[in-house]
Structures are given as C-alpha cells and as structure tokens.
C-alpha cells in the first residue's frame, strides 16, 4: 500500500470522478484508475461502484476513507514540518480546543498572547476537535496545549486551572423574554428548547435544571455545537440553553443572551502534556486564556486543579460514581 494510491483514492472520493481526481493530483485519468485498481487488488475488496463517468464509494470504501484521511493529514503535517525545518523555522505552537472554546475564547486569548510578544501568528496551529480528541492530542504530543471542558484530569496531562461560568439562555432579539435582564426557566414553559445532545456532558445538567423547575418543553432540538444552537434560535426555532463561551464570544446581532435563574455550571480549563515541560510561549498562552476568560465571562470563577475531583463529584456524584473513574471515561463524544 503506497501513499500515492491512498492519495488517488481520497481524491476520487472527494471529487466524485476519476477524471476530476486526475486534474486535482496532476495525473492522467489512466494513472488514477491504475492506482485505484492496484489498491483494490491489495485490499481484496472494491472501493467504488461505477456508473458511467461517476463513481461512488462502497460501504467499505467509506469506512476506509476515514482512516486514509487521517493518514494523509498526518503526511501533510510531516511535509509541512520538514519544509519548516529546512527553512530553519522553530517548532510551531500547536493548540487543540473544543469548537466552543476554539471559536469563543481562543481568538481573544491569542490576540493577547500576540500583543504580549509571546508567540508569532506564523507559528501557531489551531485544531478544533471533540473534548476526547483534545485530551488525546495533548497526551500523544500532537498538541502543546489543550482547551477543554470537564473532565480534564487524565493521567499524563497537567491541569493548569479550571474555569466555572453559568450557562445562559439565548433568544431572538424580538422575543418578549429578551426585554428581561435575566430569564427564569419557568418562563420557558411550553417553548421549544434547543440544547446539547450529549447526555454525559452539559445536556445532563440542563435536563436536571429543567426538571427541577418543572418546565414542560413543547419540544427539544438536539445539536452537537453551540453555534448551531444559536443559528437555530435565530431562525425562530426555540430558546437555547447553552454554555456561555460561544454565546458571549460569538455574539449575533439579532440574538439576546441572558443569564438564567438556575445553577447550571459550565466547567472548562487548560491542559498541557505532563511529560514535556511547558515552554514560555505555552505558559504565556495559559495566562492569556485565563485573562481572556475573565474579560469575556462576567461571572467567571477560577478553580484550582486540586478541585477537579470535587467538581466532578458535584456533577456526577448523585449516582455514587467515583470521580477518578469518571475522569477516565467521559462517555460519548460531544463538541461542547
């Protein structure tokens, strides 16, 4: 199995035709066909079904593509790194963050770090991934720093600080609730609720608060990102109860963000690899993220890393679960 065969396979999946894949890679159509045939012969199964000039991946082809895409991305990273070394460039600052933190908090934090001369914009890489992938990137050394939601404490990572801020409600600016300085959950009765779909993270706390308030929802729209929740609200599809970083960090002109009367905490923090000492740039960014969070979130509370277990117990302890176990198994992937 050769890289050029995998590149041909990925190009055909992306473009939908062998001819277009050839143009994308600068190779002839027969050359692409030959590479695909060689790969299929080695694998022992068909990668595509063919209908005239158009091709579609088989089910096995779709499943293989996920792995091939990651491999090619890794190869591209190696090529970029090799080119940087040839130019004499230093190591880039690699950041992994959940979509909420990457979009709502990281940009102002990086602006602070750049302004303080701690790192150069030409040497920063940002990857927006799920919470579980943030931890994996830090553990494997693929990221120098991770911005993640709780749980944070895993073997092999250093937790620098934990931030706590209350969840908020987002309504359309023309909604009567937008005229109130704060929104009571009971005011959301018989309204459609837009919230996160993962029951192991923020959704668990939202459902519990709605149940305590006795709020009968007219319906629920589940989504895996807060920015999707905000756009659903903007379309008039309901009231969103979501984490505050996206709501305040990515304000939409026609959306009103208000505090709610229920205690639904959102916990997040910064982690780095335990096995590698943090550089000056990394430590500077750790502080810049804290400063940006304090400016963005009016109710921010800074927690010490030693409080991690107690915070997990407060969130999940009703089931008698052990915090250490929970910190190692956060449940299915969620983007916020």
Provide the descriptors you would attach to this structure in a database record.
336 residues; alpha/beta; Arc Repressor Mutant, subunit A; D-Maltodextrin-Binding Protein, domain 2; 3 domains; 6-stranded mixed sheet; 5-stranded mixed sheet; 13 helices; 21% strand; disordered C terminus
Description:
With 336 residues, this protein is α/β, with parallel strands linked by helices. It folds into 3 domains: 3-86, Arc Repressor Mutant, subunit A; 93-162 and 268-301, Periplasmic binding protein-like II (D-Maltodextrin-Binding Protein, domain 2, 3-Layer(aba) Sandwich); 168-263, Periplasmic binding protein-like II (D-Maltodextrin-Binding Protein, domain 2, 3-Layer(aba) Sandwich). It has 13 helices and 13 strands. It has helices spanning 3-15, 18-25, 29-43, 59-86, 99-104, 106-115, 131-140, 202-213, 226-234, 244-249, 280-296, 308-316, 323-328; strands at residues 48-51, 54-57, 93-97, 124-128, 145-149, 157-166, 168-172, 192-196, 219-223, 239-242, 255-259, 265-273, 301-303. The strands form 3 sheets. It has a 6-stranded mixed beta sheet with strand order 4-3-5-12-6-13, sandwiched between helices. Strands 9-8-10-7-11 form a 5-stranded mixed beta sheet, with helices on both faces. Strands 1-2 form a two-stranded antiparallel ribbon. The chain is globular and about 65 Å long. It starts with a helix and ends in an 8-residue tail after the last helix.
């Amino acid at each position: 199995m050769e890289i050029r065969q995998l590149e041909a396979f990925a190009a055909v999946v992306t473009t939908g035709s062998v001819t277009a894949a050839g143009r994308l890679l600068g190779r002839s159509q027969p050359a692409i066909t030959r590479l695909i045939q060689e790969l299929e012969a080695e694998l022992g199964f068909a990668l595509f079904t063919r209908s005239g000039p158009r091709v579609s991946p088989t089910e096995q082809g779709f499943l293989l593509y996920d792995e091939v895409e990651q491999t090619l991305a890794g190869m591209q990273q190696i090529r970029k790194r090799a080119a940087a070394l040839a130019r004499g460039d230093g190591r880039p600052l690699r950041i992994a963050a959940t979509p909420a933190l990457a979009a709502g908090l990281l940009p102002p934090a990086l602006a602070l770090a750049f302004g303080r001369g701690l790192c150069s914009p030409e040497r920063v890489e940002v990857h927006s991934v799920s919470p579980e992938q943030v931890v994996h990137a830090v553990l494997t050394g693929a990221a120098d720093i991770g911005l993640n939601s709780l749980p944070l404490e895993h073997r092999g990572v250093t937790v620098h600080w934990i931030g706590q801020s209350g969840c908020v409600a987002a309504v359309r600016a023309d909604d009567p609730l937008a005229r109130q300085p704060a929104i009571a959950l009971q005011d959301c009765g018989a309204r459609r609720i837009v919230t996160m779909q993962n029951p192991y993270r923020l959704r668990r706390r939202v459902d519990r608060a709605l149940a305590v308030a006795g709020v009968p929802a007219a319906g629920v729209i589940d989504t895996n990102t807060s920015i999707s929740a905000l756009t659903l609200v903007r379309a008039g599809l309901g009231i969103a109860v979501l984490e505050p970083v996206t709501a305040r960090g990515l304000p939409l002109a026609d959306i009103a963000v208000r505090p709610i009367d229920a205690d639904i905490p959102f916990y997040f923090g910064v982690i780095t690899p335990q096995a590698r000492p943090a550089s000056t740039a990394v430590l500077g960014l750790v502080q810049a993220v804290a400063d940006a969070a304090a400016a963005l979130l009016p109710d921010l509370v800074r927690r010490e890393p030693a409080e991690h277990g107690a915070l997990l117990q407060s969130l999940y302890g009703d089931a008698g679960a052990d915090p250490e176990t929970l910190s190692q198994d956060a449940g299915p992937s969620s983007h916020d």
